[in-house]
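Chain A, query sequence.
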Amino acid sequence: MLPALAAATSVFGQQLKREVVFTMNANEVVNQNEYALLNNRFACMTHDTITKELTFVFNGERVRTMRADSRREDDAWSLYYVNPGQEKGYIFTYKEDGKWFVNCRGVVDGGFDDVYSQNLPVGDEERELYVWEKNYDYLYKLAGLWYVCKNGESRKINFIEKVYENGLQRLNINGKSAGPYNSVPDVALTESGKYAYSFSDNGRYYLNVNGSVKGWHYNSIYSVALAQGGKYAYSYHHNGSSYMNINGVFVEGPLKYDISNLALTESGKYAYSYEDKGGYYVKMNGSIIGGPYKYDIRNLTLAENGKYGYCFHESRKYYRNMSGVVTEERDNQFLDNDCFHDSLDISSRNNEHSFSSSYKYMYVVIDGRSYGCSPAVEAWYNASKNAFVWSAVEGRELVAYEYALK
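Chain A, predicted structure.
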Protein backbone atom coordinates (compact mmCIF):
# COMPACT_ATOMS: atom_id res chain seq x y z
CA MET A 1 0.00 0.00 0.00
CA LEU A 2 1.44 3.38 -1.00
CA PRO A 3 1.54 5.99 1.78
CA ALA A 4 -0.79 8.94 1.44
CA LEU A 5 0.73 12.29 2.43
CA ALA A 6 -1.39 15.18 3.55
CA ALA A 7 -0.59 18.53 5.11
CA ALA A 8 -2.78 19.38 8.06
CA THR A 9 -5.07 22.33 7.47
CA SER A 10 -4.78 24.68 10.42
CA VAL A 11 -3.67 28.14 11.33
CA PHE A 12 -0.20 26.65 11.72
CA GLY A 13 0.14 26.15 7.94
CA GLN A 14 2.70 23.54 6.91
CA GLN A 15 4.19 22.98 10.39
CA LEU A 16 2.16 19.78 10.85
CA LYS A 17 2.32 16.91 8.36
CA ARG A 18 0.20 13.78 8.56
CA GLU A 19 1.08 10.60 6.62
CA VAL A 20 -1.06 7.47 6.46
CA VAL A 21 1.42 4.59 6.36
CA PHE A 22 -1.13 1.75 6.39
CA THR A 23 -4.89 1.24 6.29
CA MET A 24 -6.29 -1.84 7.99
CA ASN A 25 -9.09 -3.93 6.57
CA ALA A 26 -12.64 -3.70 7.84
CA ASN A 27 -12.98 -5.17 11.35
CA GLU A 28 -9.19 -5.01 11.96
CA VAL A 29 -7.64 -3.29 14.95
CA VAL A 30 -4.07 -3.06 16.21
CA ASN A 31 -3.53 -5.95 18.61
CA GLN A 32 -2.55 -4.89 22.15
CA ASN A 33 -0.36 -1.91 21.17
CA GLU A 34 1.85 -4.11 18.98
CA TYR A 35 2.93 -1.31 16.68
CA ALA A 36 6.40 0.10 15.95
CA LEU A 37 7.26 3.02 13.67
CA LEU A 38 10.70 4.22 12.52
CA ASN A 39 11.03 7.03 9.99
CA ASN A 40 7.66 6.19 8.41
CA ARG A 41 8.54 2.51 8.15
CA PHE A 42 6.46 0.36 10.46
CA ALA A 43 5.51 -3.02 11.84
CA CYS A 44 2.27 -3.98 13.52
CA MET A 45 0.07 -6.87 14.55
CA THR A 46 -3.57 -6.61 13.52
CA HIS A 47 -6.49 -8.49 15.04
CA ASP A 48 -9.62 -9.21 13.02
CA THR A 49 -12.49 -8.90 15.48
CA ILE A 50 -14.75 -11.15 13.33
CA THR A 51 -12.45 -13.99 12.18
CA LYS A 52 -10.20 -13.66 15.27
CA GLU A 53 -7.14 -13.91 13.02
CA LEU A 54 -3.85 -12.17 13.79
CA THR A 55 -1.76 -10.74 10.94
CA PHE A 56 1.82 -9.53 11.12
CA VAL A 57 2.30 -6.53 8.82
CA PHE A 58 5.77 -5.23 7.96
CA ASN A 59 6.11 -2.05 5.92
CA GLY A 60 2.83 -2.69 4.15
CA GLU A 61 3.38 -6.41 3.51
CA ARG A 62 1.10 -8.92 5.22
CA VAL A 63 3.82 -11.41 6.13
CA ARG A 64 1.81 -14.04 7.99
CA THR A 65 -1.75 -14.60 9.22
CA MET A 66 -2.61 -17.05 11.98
CA ARG A 67 -5.38 -17.96 14.39
CA ALA A 68 -5.67 -15.94 17.58
CA ASP A 69 -5.37 -19.04 19.79
CA SER A 70 -2.88 -19.61 22.61
CA ARG A 71 0.76 -19.49 21.53
CA ARG A 72 1.27 -23.25 21.95
CA GLU A 73 -1.40 -24.31 19.45
CA ASP A 74 -0.67 -25.88 16.06
CA ASP A 75 -0.07 -22.69 14.14
CA ALA A 76 0.88 -20.66 17.22
CA TRP A 77 3.52 -18.03 16.86
CA SER A 78 5.53 -15.38 18.70
CA LEU A 79 7.17 -12.23 17.34
CA TYR A 80 10.59 -11.79 18.95
CA TYR A 81 12.34 -9.04 17.02
CA VAL A 82 11.21 -6.14 14.87
CA ASN A 83 13.16 -3.27 13.31
CA PRO A 84 11.10 -1.41 10.70
CA GLY A 85 14.19 0.41 9.44
CA GLN A 86 15.91 -2.85 8.45
CA GLU A 87 15.17 -4.81 5.28
CA LYS A 88 13.01 -7.74 6.44
CA GLY A 89 13.86 -6.70 9.99
CA TYR A 90 11.86 -9.30 11.90
CA ILE A 91 12.17 -12.68 13.59
CA PHE A 92 9.14 -14.76 14.50
CA THR A 93 8.47 -18.41 15.33
CA TYR A 94 5.50 -20.62 14.56
CA LYS A 95 4.39 -24.24 14.80
CA GLU A 96 3.18 -26.49 12.00
CA ASP A 97 2.40 -30.22 12.14
CA GLY A 98 4.00 -30.58 15.56
CA LYS A 99 7.32 -28.93 14.59
CA TRP A 100 8.61 -25.42 15.24
CA PHE A 101 9.93 -23.06 12.58
CA VAL A 102 11.69 -19.68 12.59
CA ASN A 103 11.27 -16.92 10.03
CA CYS A 104 14.51 -14.98 10.52
CA ARG A 105 14.59 -11.88 8.33
CA GLY A 106 12.62 -13.65 5.63
CA VAL A 107 14.53 -16.97 5.77
CA VAL A 108 12.61 -19.93 7.23
CA ASP A 109 14.45 -22.56 9.32
CA GLY A 110 13.03 -25.69 11.02
CA GLY A 111 11.44 -28.03 11.99
CA PHE A 112 12.62 -28.17 15.56
CA ASP A 113 11.34 -29.68 18.77
CA ASP A 114 11.23 -26.19 20.32
CA VAL A 115 12.46 -22.64 19.68
CA TYR A 116 13.35 -19.48 21.57
CA SER A 117 14.64 -16.08 20.61
CA GLN A 118 16.00 -13.01 22.43
CA ASN A 119 15.19 -11.61 25.88
CA LEU A 120 16.08 -14.61 28.02
CA PRO A 121 15.37 -15.91 30.55
CA VAL A 122 11.84 -16.29 29.23
CA GLY A 123 9.11 -18.24 30.95
CA ASP A 124 5.63 -19.47 30.20
CA GLU A 125 3.31 -21.99 31.78
CA GLU A 126 5.34 -24.93 30.50
CA ARG A 127 9.04 -24.11 30.78
CA GLU A 128 11.80 -21.53 31.16
CA LEU A 129 15.17 -21.46 29.47
CA TYR A 130 18.42 -19.91 30.74
CA VAL A 131 21.48 -19.39 28.54
CA TRP A 132 24.63 -17.28 28.58
CA GLU A 133 24.55 -16.50 24.86
CA LYS A 134 24.09 -12.88 23.77
CA ASN A 135 23.28 -11.16 20.47
CA TYR A 136 22.05 -14.26 18.67
CA ASP A 137 19.19 -14.61 16.22
CA TYR A 138 17.37 -17.57 17.79
CA LEU A 139 17.73 -20.80 19.75
CA TYR A 140 16.33 -24.18 18.82
CA LYS A 141 16.04 -27.60 20.46
CA LEU A 142 16.71 -31.04 18.98
CA ALA A 143 16.97 -34.36 20.84
CA GLY A 144 16.96 -32.72 24.28
CA LEU A 145 19.79 -30.24 23.56
CA TRP A 146 19.73 -26.54 22.67
CA TYR A 147 21.57 -24.84 19.81
CA VAL A 148 22.20 -21.19 18.96
CA CYS A 149 21.94 -19.70 15.49
CA LYS A 150 23.53 -16.39 14.49
CA ASN A 151 24.00 -15.18 10.93
CA GLY A 152 23.05 -18.62 9.65
CA GLU A 153 25.69 -20.47 11.72
CA SER A 154 24.62 -22.96 14.44
CA ARG A 155 26.36 -24.59 17.41
CA LYS A 156 25.48 -26.46 20.61
CA ILE A 157 25.36 -24.38 23.81
CA ASN A 158 25.29 -24.67 27.61
CA PHE A 159 21.79 -24.25 29.02
CA ILE A 160 19.42 -24.87 31.91
CA GLU A 161 15.82 -25.62 31.05
CA LYS A 162 13.12 -25.60 33.71
CA VAL A 163 10.19 -27.89 32.92
CA TYR A 164 6.87 -27.96 34.80
CA GLU A 165 5.41 -31.46 35.25
CA ASN A 166 2.44 -32.51 37.42
CA GLY A 167 2.81 -29.57 39.77
CA LEU A 168 6.57 -30.10 40.19
CA GLN A 169 9.64 -28.62 38.47
CA ARG A 170 12.45 -30.52 36.82
CA LEU A 171 15.68 -29.16 35.35
CA ASN A 172 17.38 -30.16 32.12
CA ILE A 173 21.02 -29.12 32.62
CA ASN A 174 22.92 -29.56 29.36
CA GLY A 175 20.91 -32.68 28.62
CA LYS A 176 21.04 -34.17 32.15
CA SER A 177 17.95 -34.26 34.37
CA ALA A 178 17.77 -32.90 37.95
CA GLY A 179 14.77 -33.07 40.27
CA PRO A 180 11.83 -33.08 40.37
CA TYR A 181 11.53 -30.37 43.04
CA ASN A 182 8.61 -28.59 44.64
CA SER A 183 9.93 -25.36 43.10
CA VAL A 184 13.07 -23.84 41.56
CA PRO A 185 12.93 -20.10 42.36
CA ASP A 186 16.08 -19.00 40.50
CA VAL A 187 18.89 -20.22 38.25
CA ALA A 188 22.37 -18.90 37.35
CA LEU A 189 24.67 -19.99 34.52
CA THR A 190 28.18 -18.92 33.44
CA GLU A 191 29.72 -18.79 29.98
CA SER A 192 31.78 -21.92 30.69
CA GLY A 193 28.71 -23.89 31.82
CA LYS A 194 29.05 -23.60 35.61
CA TYR A 195 25.62 -23.42 37.20
CA ALA A 196 23.76 -22.75 40.43
CA TYR A 197 20.10 -22.92 41.37
CA SER A 198 17.86 -22.77 44.40
CA PHE A 199 15.19 -25.39 45.00
CA SER A 200 12.65 -26.38 47.63
CA ASP A 201 11.94 -29.85 48.97
CA ASN A 202 9.75 -30.81 51.93
CA GLY A 203 9.45 -27.24 53.20
CA ARG A 204 13.18 -26.41 53.07
CA TYR A 205 15.11 -24.37 50.50
CA TYR A 206 18.51 -25.42 49.22
CA LEU A 207 21.27 -24.03 47.00
CA ASN A 208 22.92 -26.32 44.46
CA VAL A 209 26.22 -25.13 42.96
CA ASN A 210 27.60 -27.36 40.19
CA GLY A 211 25.92 -30.42 41.71
CA SER A 212 26.93 -29.68 45.33
CA VAL A 213 24.31 -28.60 47.89
CA LYS A 214 25.63 -25.64 49.92
CA GLY A 215 23.10 -25.56 52.77
CA TRP A 216 19.43 -24.95 53.44
CA HIS A 217 16.96 -22.45 54.91
CA TYR A 218 13.41 -22.77 56.16
CA ASN A 219 12.54 -19.56 54.26
CA SER A 220 12.88 -19.14 50.52
CA ILE A 221 16.13 -18.69 48.61
CA TYR A 222 14.84 -16.58 45.75
CA SER A 223 17.73 -14.87 43.87
CA VAL A 224 20.98 -16.56 42.77
CA ALA A 225 24.16 -15.31 41.04
CA LEU A 226 27.33 -17.07 39.94
CA ALA A 227 30.70 -15.54 38.99
CA GLN A 228 32.72 -16.97 36.10
CA GLY A 229 35.21 -18.60 38.49
CA GLY A 230 32.48 -20.28 40.55
CA LYS A 231 31.88 -17.88 43.46
CA TYR A 232 28.17 -17.77 44.28
CA ALA A 233 25.71 -15.39 45.91
CA TYR A 234 22.09 -15.72 46.93
CA SER A 235 19.38 -13.86 48.79
CA TYR A 236 16.85 -15.39 51.15
CA HIS A 237 13.93 -14.54 53.42
CA HIS A 238 14.02 -14.87 57.20
CA ASN A 239 11.40 -13.58 59.65
CA GLY A 240 9.89 -11.24 57.06
CA SER A 241 13.18 -9.66 55.95
CA SER A 242 15.67 -10.31 53.14
CA TYR A 243 19.35 -11.17 53.49
CA MET A 244 22.24 -11.72 51.09
CA ASN A 245 25.03 -14.28 51.31
CA ILE A 246 28.23 -14.59 49.22
CA ASN A 247 30.04 -17.94 49.30
CA GLY A 248 28.45 -18.85 52.62
CA VAL A 249 29.24 -15.48 54.28
CA PHE A 250 26.52 -13.02 55.36
CA VAL A 251 26.79 -9.69 53.48
CA GLU A 252 23.57 -7.64 53.77
CA GLY A 253 20.41 -7.65 55.85
CA PRO A 254 17.88 -7.41 57.27
CA LEU A 255 16.41 -5.65 54.21
CA LYS A 256 12.79 -4.56 53.81
CA TYR A 257 12.77 -5.33 50.08
CA ASP A 258 13.37 -8.29 47.76
CA ILE A 259 16.55 -8.50 45.69
CA SER A 260 16.40 -9.15 41.92
CA ASN A 261 18.79 -9.07 38.93
CA LEU A 262 21.66 -10.10 41.20
CA ALA A 263 25.15 -9.82 39.62
CA LEU A 264 28.48 -10.95 41.12
CA THR A 265 32.21 -10.78 40.34
CA GLU A 266 34.87 -13.25 41.48
CA SER A 267 36.32 -10.75 43.99
CA GLY A 268 32.90 -10.43 45.64
CA LYS A 269 31.66 -7.16 44.13
CA TYR A 270 27.89 -7.33 43.68
CA ALA A 271 24.94 -5.37 42.32
CA TYR A 272 21.19 -5.85 42.26
CA SER A 273 17.86 -4.09 41.77
CA TYR A 274 14.98 -3.76 44.21
CA GLU A 275 11.60 -2.08 44.62
CA ASP A 276 10.85 0.37 47.40
CA LYS A 277 7.76 2.56 47.79
CA GLY A 278 6.68 2.03 44.18
CA GLY A 279 10.06 2.79 42.60
CA TYR A 280 12.85 0.52 41.36
CA TYR A 281 16.48 1.16 42.33
CA VAL A 282 19.90 -0.27 41.50
CA LYS A 283 22.48 -0.89 44.22
CA MET A 284 26.17 -1.78 43.91
CA ASN A 285 28.16 -2.92 46.95
CA GLY A 286 25.53 -1.42 49.27
CA SER A 287 25.23 2.00 47.56
CA ILE A 288 22.41 3.23 45.29
CA ILE A 289 23.65 3.91 41.75
CA GLY A 290 20.35 4.24 39.88
CA GLY A 291 16.67 5.00 40.29
CA PRO A 292 13.93 5.44 41.04
CA TYR A 293 12.48 3.89 37.86
CA LYS A 294 8.84 3.05 37.22
CA TYR A 295 9.73 -0.44 35.94
CA ASP A 296 12.39 -2.90 36.98
CA ILE A 297 15.68 -2.85 35.10
CA ARG A 298 17.08 -5.69 33.01
CA ASN A 299 20.40 -6.96 31.64
CA LEU A 300 22.38 -5.92 34.74
CA THR A 301 26.12 -6.55 34.31
CA LEU A 302 29.07 -5.91 36.63
CA ALA A 303 32.78 -6.10 35.81
CA GLU A 304 35.72 -6.69 38.15
CA ASN A 305 36.88 -3.07 37.68
CA GLY A 306 33.52 -1.83 38.96
CA LYS A 307 32.03 -0.84 35.62
CA TYR A 308 28.36 -1.70 35.35
CA GLY A 309 25.53 -1.63 32.85
CA TYR A 310 21.77 -2.07 32.79
CA CYS A 311 18.74 -1.16 30.69
CA PHE A 312 15.56 0.60 31.75
CA HIS A 313 12.31 1.95 30.28
CA GLU A 314 11.10 5.46 30.92
CA SER A 315 8.28 7.39 29.20
CA ARG A 316 7.90 4.52 26.72
CA LYS A 317 11.55 4.83 25.70
CA TYR A 318 14.44 2.41 26.15
CA TYR A 319 17.72 3.51 27.73
CA ARG A 320 21.06 1.93 28.55
CA ASN A 321 23.08 3.09 31.57
CA MET A 322 26.78 2.25 31.24
CA SER A 323 28.56 3.30 34.46
CA GLY A 324 26.50 6.48 34.66
CA VAL A 325 26.47 7.34 30.94
CA VAL A 326 22.88 7.07 29.72
CA THR A 327 22.06 6.63 26.03
CA GLU A 328 18.71 6.25 24.35
CA GLU A 329 18.29 3.17 22.18
CA ARG A 330 15.56 1.72 20.04
CA ASP A 331 14.54 -1.50 21.69
CA ASN A 332 13.64 -3.26 18.39
CA GLN A 333 11.06 -5.13 20.43
CA PHE A 334 7.43 -4.32 21.13
CA LEU A 335 7.50 -2.98 24.69
CA ASP A 336 5.57 -4.63 27.50
CA ASN A 337 1.94 -3.55 27.40
CA ASP A 338 2.28 -1.93 30.83
CA CYS A 339 4.81 0.54 29.41
CA PHE A 340 2.23 1.89 26.96
CA HIS A 341 0.12 3.27 29.78
CA ASP A 342 2.88 5.76 30.59
CA SER A 343 2.65 9.37 29.55
CA LEU A 344 5.10 10.68 26.97
CA ASP A 345 6.97 13.89 27.77
CA ILE A 346 9.63 15.09 25.32
CA SER A 347 11.60 18.30 24.91
CA SER A 348 13.44 19.83 21.97
CA ARG A 349 17.03 21.03 22.12
CA ASN A 350 17.67 23.35 25.07
CA ASN A 351 14.13 22.57 26.29
CA GLU A 352 12.73 25.29 24.02
CA HIS A 353 9.64 23.28 23.03
CA SER A 354 7.59 20.56 24.75
CA PHE A 355 5.62 17.53 23.61
CA SER A 356 3.31 15.42 25.76
CA SER A 357 0.82 12.63 25.22
CA SER A 358 -1.29 10.41 27.44
CA TYR A 359 -3.74 7.62 26.66
CA LYS A 360 -6.29 9.52 28.72
CA TYR A 361 -6.64 12.11 25.94
CA MET A 362 -7.36 11.74 22.22
CA TYR A 363 -4.71 14.21 21.10
CA VAL A 364 -1.12 15.26 21.75
CA VAL A 365 0.02 18.59 23.14
CA ILE A 366 2.86 20.65 21.65
CA ASP A 367 3.75 23.94 23.33
CA GLY A 368 0.32 24.14 24.92
CA ARG A 369 -1.69 23.36 21.77
CA SER A 370 -3.54 20.12 20.91
CA TYR A 371 -2.95 18.21 17.66
CA GLY A 372 -4.37 15.07 16.05
CA CYS A 373 -7.28 12.95 17.20
CA SER A 374 -5.53 10.17 19.15
CA PRO A 375 -2.67 9.71 21.61
CA ALA A 376 0.85 8.90 20.40
CA VAL A 377 2.04 5.29 20.29
CA GLU A 378 5.68 6.37 19.97
CA ALA A 379 7.23 9.84 19.83
CA TRP A 380 10.65 11.41 19.64
CA TYR A 381 12.45 14.65 18.82
CA ASN A 382 14.27 14.66 15.46
CA ALA A 383 17.21 17.01 15.92
CA SER A 384 18.22 17.10 12.24
CA LYS A 385 14.73 18.29 11.25
CA ASN A 386 14.10 20.21 14.49
CA ALA A 387 10.73 18.48 14.65
CA PHE A 388 8.61 16.33 16.90
CA VAL A 389 7.69 13.03 15.26
CA TRP A 390 5.07 10.60 16.50
CA SER A 391 2.94 7.66 15.42
CA ALA A 392 -0.74 7.12 16.11
CA VAL A 393 -3.64 4.79 15.39
CA GLU A 394 -6.68 6.65 14.10
CA GLY A 395 -9.55 4.33 13.31
CA ARG A 396 -8.30 1.96 10.60
CA GLU A 397 -5.31 4.15 9.75
CA LEU A 398 -1.77 3.92 11.07
CA VAL A 399 -0.47 7.47 10.93
CA ALA A 400 2.91 9.20 11.14
CA TYR A 401 2.96 12.83 12.24
CA GLU A 402 5.74 15.40 11.96
CA TYR A 403 5.59 18.85 13.53
CA ALA A 404 8.33 21.25 12.39
CA LEU A 405 9.38 23.67 15.09
CA LYS A 406 10.09 27.29 14.31
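The chain is about 0% helix and 60% strand. The radius of gyration is 24 Å.
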